[in-house]
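Feature request, filed as a ticket because there's no other form

It would be nice if the structure record came with a short human-readable summary line next to the tokens. Right now we just get the raw output. Example of a typical job, pasted below so the devs can see what we mean:
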Amino acid sequence: MLKVNRNDLCPCGSGRKYKVCCGQNHNGIQYPDTPERLIRARYTAYAIGEVDFLWKTTHPSNEAVEGKTEAAYKQETLAYCNQVTFTGLTVHETLPEDEQGISRGTLTARFQVADRPEDSFTERSEFVQVDGRLLYLRGTEVASPES
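Raw output as currently delivered:
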């Protein structure tokens, strides 16, 4: 898990300092208002173990939280964050809300586990508005557009 100070570059790859990028979201100063901002903030939350933010931005019907207590979700997620080092994010595209109220984004996250070589996954994420806030509904692994 990464340790990030306020003045470090944000792990999301924006090129901005954490305190003016995803740190604003994690500290409750502002809420991510676009799919890209939510993708970046959630990626960074996984990278640094900010499980409170992940809980708050995951839709209750998402399989990662469905049927779990907040404490159980946070414990499992923190254990995952401690095993994985996230090494980079590419946001390929985002699409605005459709007629069903779902907005989407495609991302590739690079990571490393223990002494294994760096790996990655590409996901098509779906988001919905609940009480005026975007929440992560679900993700589906897809082929990387970079392949």
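Something like this underneath would help us a lot:
The chain has one domain: 18-141.
The chain has a mean pLDDT of 95.
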